[in-house]
Design goal:
The complex is a heterodimer of chains A (about 350) and B (about 260).
Chain A (H helix, E strand, L loop, with lengths): L3 E12 L2 E12 L3 E5 L6 H9 L6 E6 L2 E2 L10 E4 L11 H11 L4 H14 L15 H13 L5 E5 L7 H18 L2 E6 L2 H7 L2 E6 L2 E6 L1 H6 L4 H6 L4 E9 L4 E4 L2 E4 L12 E6 L4 E3 L7 E12 L3 E8 L2 E8 L12 E6 L5 E3 L2
Helix pairs in contact in A: 2-3, 2-4, 3-4
Chain B lengths: L1 H29 L10 H8 L1 H34 L5 H13 L2 H11 L12 H29 L3 H10 L4 H30 L2 H5 L5 H11 L3 H24 L11
The chains are: A alpha+beta (about 350), B mainly alpha (about 260).
């Protein structure tokens, strides 16, 4: 646990008979940005609130900086928190809000003033100190909330879906801003979101949660490219799931949509005739034959959607619809629905979903 | 459309006459103390009466004490119920409505029976004890107004998130109450306070039956013995009540404005 700054050990939380978080373990390094990603009701916010101290775990412990904080009150944990609903104090100015934590900590007025000015610079609102929250837009309010949470130099910064109330454009710019500030200050951060794009673009590591459990913990690259479970594969990114049958386990041959592909030794030890689910990302599939791709299946184009820089094509492969993305090129005409088409892929890109 | 507008104005005029005529009559009568001309003699007579000054001061002091105790009782209770015990709200609302259902005379007889000189807590045995008893009686009478005002104020802010935000910044309960919650419900608290003030200033039953020198019993005494002064006192009492209402309107302009909330 030596280089782990935030440690969550065997945490379980139940509200009456409903278990919300179970067997949750996580170690976060100092300065790391970790996201809890999952659908509504998966327990991610409850887990964050347990770290913050707003909820007490039924079982398990939380350590911050090596100290057991499980039974400490939120105001004794030295954490900073940003809420979805901004939660700025309406009776205080922006400067008053940012300086609140420092004032509570009994810091001298001069120090508070200088830290507030520093924070206002950091969030790029240097002239907004005397404004009230109602005079700010949603994005500005959330930046002030971020500055307020960071002003007292907390050990851990907790972000509870801070971007989900903002419109798309502000959300993208603010997530970049949050990540830049977090890196600049090197503050250990836990971010809760149900938006996979946010999690993938911002995090050092992602904890994908489902039904109160951590389904997988890994870097965005690992989570996206090597999902450990069927849920992770389906939740993160778009995925084509193709049902197949093991034809020859020793040779690694699997039958899909009437064709045969090789998946190497990944089905070794399994029985011939056993059904299995295979998954492929749309960007791993190409329309037509491509050099170096060992998987080739023929199907019928059912649907063509123009998405700007890419064209999404849905191909019927013996009853299973598979989506693939192809780059939009003004020089070549787009595929046409109803045409027969070959699709190719590398069997090494194919995921075998065991659970 | 035009006919509708006519009837609207007609009913409005009728309402205004219904409320204003008696007041105008009372005011006009209060100015007739000097024969043949309008004068403020009745007002001067009332204001110069040492009993007016004494009873009015007494009632003002009682009103201030009632407001302080009422705020200290109601604000933390309403806050706590909203934050931690939302299931208790209907019961609390029921309890705070009881003073509107139980007549003050029943309340005061209950007090006299419970706190008389031969009881376990003989509050009526001393002037101070009786004052305290009267003040708590006023707190009970003003409870429906104070609770509702504060509860409405709390409803307008996100109590839970603001509390959690303050807690995450290191604030304890006292700091949260004093620096975050109270300033944001101050206008509601002041509305409750002005209503309480108006109730206490004109209250008769509790003060008379507990035999305290309050403004209400003085109004009744003057009314029974003089001609013009009671009318002047009635106008003064109305002016105080309206002044309180006007202050509610004034302070509500200074309420912290709620920021835009996420949708």
């Amino acid at each position: 646990m030596s280089d782990q700054f935030l440690s969550i050990r065997q945490v379980r939380k139940a509200f009456g008979p409903t278990v919300v978080v179970q067997e949750f373990n996580l170690d976060v390094k100092q300065g790391e940005f970790v996201s809890f990603l999952g659908p509504s009701g998966c327990g991610k916010t409850t887990m964050l609130r347990i770290v913050a101290g707003f909820e007490e775990p039924s079982v398990g412990q939380v350590f911050i900086g090596g100290k057991d904080v499980t039974r400490l009150k939120p105001n004794q944990r030295n954490i900073g928190m940003v809420f979805q609903a901004y939660a700025l104090f309406p009776n205080m100015t922006v400067a008053g809000n940012i300086g609140f934590g420092l004032k509570v900590a009994g810091k001298p007025a001069a120090e508070i003033r200088s830290r507030v000015a520093e924070m206002l610079e950091l969030i790029k609102l240097p002239d907004f100190g005397n404004r009230y929250p109602y005079q700010l837009s949603g994005g500005q309010q959330q930046r002030v909330a971020l500055a307020r949470a960071m002003a007292p130099r907390p050990q851990v910064l907790l972000l509870d879906e801070p971007l989900s109330a903002l419109d798309a454009k502000v959300r993208v710019s603010l997530r970049e801003e949050i990540r830049t500030i977090q890196k600049e200050l090197g503050i250990t951060t836990v971010f809760v979101t149900h938006d996979q794009e946010e999690a993938l673009s911002m995090s050092d590591r992602i904890v994908v949660m489902y039904d109160g459990r951590a389904e997988q913990v890994g870097t965005p690259f690992e989570i996206y490219n090597r999902p450990a479970t069927r849920f992770v594969a389906g939740f993160v990114g778009t995925l084509n799931v193709i049902e197949g049958t093991i034809a020859d386990p020793a040779a690694g041959v699997v039958t899909i949509a009437g064709g045969e592909i090789s998946v190497g030794n990944r089905v070794a030890g399994r029985k011939a005739g056993e059904a299995l689910s295979l998954a492929l990302r749309p960007e791993a599939i190409a329309l037509g034959r491509r050099e170096g791709r060992d998987g080739l299946v023929t199907g019928t184009i059912r649907e063509v959607s123009f998405l700007g820089s890419v064209i999404r094509v849905r191909v019927d492969m013996g009853g299973a619809l598979v989506s693939l993305d192809t780059f939009n090129s003004p020089a070549s005409p787009p595929p046409v629905a109803g045409e027969r088409a070959e699709i190719s892929f590398s069997s090494s890109d194919m995921l075998i979903l065991d659970r | 459309m035009k006919a509708n507008r006519f009837w609207s104005w007609a009913f409005l005029a009728l309402g205004v006459l219904y409320f204003a005529l008696p007041l105008i009559g009372t005011f006009e009568f209060s100015m007739k103390m000097r024969r043949g001309v309008y004068s403020l003699d009745a007002y001067w007579a009332v204001l110069a009466d040492p009993r007016f000054q004494a009873t009015f001061t007494y009632s003002v002091m009682m009103a201030l004490a009632t407001i302080v105790v009422g705020v200290l009782l109601v604000v933390p209770t309403a806050y706590w119920v909203r934050l931690k015990l939302p299931g208790w709200r209907p019961y609390l609302e029921f309890v705070t409505l009881l003073p509107l259902v139980i007549p003050p005379i029943v309340i005061v007889f209950g007090y006299i029976r419970l706190y008389n000189t031969s009881s376990w807590l003989p509050l009526t045995g001393t002037a101070l004890g009786t004052n305290i008893l009267l003040m708590f009686g006023y707190v009970v009478l003003s409870l429906p107004y104070m609770y509702r005002a504060v509860d409405t104020g709390l409803r307008a802010i996100d109590v839970r998130t603001l509390t959690e935000a303050a807690e995450s910044l290191g604030a304890g309960w006292l700091t949260i109450m004093w620096r975050v919650i109270l300033p944001n419900v101050l206008v509601a608290v002041l509305s409750g306070a002005f209503l309480t003030f108006a109730i206490v200033i004109g209250e008769f039953v509790l003060a008379a039956l507990l035999n305290r020198p309050a403004f209400g019993p003085y109004l009744q005494l003057i009314g029974a013995n003089r001609a013009y002064e009671p009318a002047a006192l009635a106008v003064i009492a109305f002016a105080i009540t309206w002044g309180c209402m006007a202050l509610i309107q004034v302070v509500s302009r200074f309420a912290p404005r709620a920021p835009t909330q996420p949708h």
